[in-house]
Amino acid sequence: MKRKIRRTGEIIDVITFSSSTTRSDHDRIQFYGDNGNVINESLNYYLDTLPVDDENKDVDWEQRRFDLVKAYSIEFIKMQNRKGEIDCGVYVPDVVSWSITIADRVIEAMRGVENA
Questions:
Q1: What is the pLDDT of residue 101?
Q2: d(CA 33, CA 41)
Q3: Mean pLDDT, range 40-54, rounded to an integer
C-alpha cells in the first residue's frame, strides 16, 4: 500500500508495519526504497505517514449518499427516542428529507462543490 512520509513527502510502498495510534518505541515500518531495497524505519504508520490517493479508485457517491442518509436517519430517530417523543415527535418523511439534505451537503463538501 502506498503512503506518504509526512516529514519528507516521500511516497513509499509499505510492506509491513507495527504501530498503534499512539507513539511507541516499537513503531516500525518496512517498505521498499527507490533502488528496491527493503528499508526498516522507526516510524509510526498512523502518525508519521499519510494515505496516498489511488487515482484509479473511483468513489461510489451513490453508495456514500445511501450510507449517510441511513446513518443520519438512525441518529434522528435515536434523538427523538431519547426525548421520549418517538411516537409523537417524528414524522418519517421529514426525517428522510432532513437526512437526504444533510447527506447531499456533506457529499458536495467532500467533492469540493462551491457553496457547500
A1: 92
A2: 11
A3: 88
Pairwise CA distance, residues 8 & 37, whole Å:
18
| pLDDT of the residue at 84 | 57
Contact in structure between 4 and 50 (CB atoms under 8 Å): yes
3-state secondary structure of 66: helix
* Residue of 97, 112, 5 lying closest to 51 (CA atoms): 5
Residue 76 in 3-state DSSP?
helix
Q: What does the pLDDT read at residue 23?
A: 87
- Cα end-to-end distance, the chain, whole Å: 32
- Grid cell, residue 49, equals 505517514
Total-model pTM: 0.45
Mutual orientation of helices 61-82 and 92-111 as an angle, nearest 10°? 140
